[in-house]
Amino acid sequence: MTFYPNERLGLFIDGANLYSAAKALDFDIDYKKLLEEFRKRGRLVRANYYTALIEIDWLDYNGFKVVTKPAKEYTDDNGRRRIKGDMDVDLAVDVVEAASYLDHIVLFSGDGDFRRVVEAVQRKGARVSVVSTLKSSPPMASDDLRRQADAFIELAELGKLVGRERRPRDYSDDED
């Protein structure tokens, strides 16, 4: 995919989807490097990160607009505690609105539900690149979404520029 130095870029990151894709590829995203990489590719106007999680202060203070809403806690049919926090509608609305002032939208998600959103912003004149992976098992990128996008960026390749080795989680502070 060609990026042009003067085009206005916006990053829209489905946090849960990107986290799952990177985890499947066994690396973590270095978000500072991610911003630096896309600043090299154009005029980065917006970098939004969508999540229902709360522990994201670092992103907020380092160039990302963090879009959150309270996660809903519930108990599933097996009695397990679950947390639900779907940000897809928020992300979709922001992408459609941003198409009026961006030339190129970079969507970090493989979720096929975004295909119609991509189609809508393309009709408004914005180009769309989708970042996800086909190299995980199963692949994280919807075929419909990949076909609709102007370009597909394989996360495994981008990870060579913006990734770091996964750090093992420290469970010593967890409560039982």
Describe this protein's structure.
Helix content is about 35%, strand content about 30%. The chain has a six-stranded parallel β-sheet, sandwiched between helices. It has a two-stranded antiparallel ribbon with strand order 2-10. The chain has a two-stranded antiparallel ribbon with strand order 5-6. The chain is globular, with a radius of gyration of 16 Å. The chain has about 180 residues and is of the alpha/beta class. The chain is built from seven helices and ten strands. Residues about 170-175 have low confidence and may be disordered. It has one domain (about 10-70, about 80-165): 5'-nuclease (Rossmann fold, 3-Layer(aba) Sandwich), CATH 3.40.50.1010.
Any chance you could write out the topology, listing elements then pairs?
Elements: E1 8-14, H1 15-24, E2 27-29, H2 31-41, E3 43-51, H3 57-61, E4 65-68, E5 72-75, E6 81-84, H4 88-98, E7 104-108, H5 115-123, E8 127-132, H6 143-148, E9 151-154, H7 155-162, E10 163-165
Parallel strand pairs: 1-3, 1-7, 3-4, 7-8, 8-9
Antiparallel strand pairs: 2-10, 5-6
Question: Brief description of this entry?
Answer:
It is built from 7 helices and 10 strands. It is of the alpha/beta class and 176 residues long.
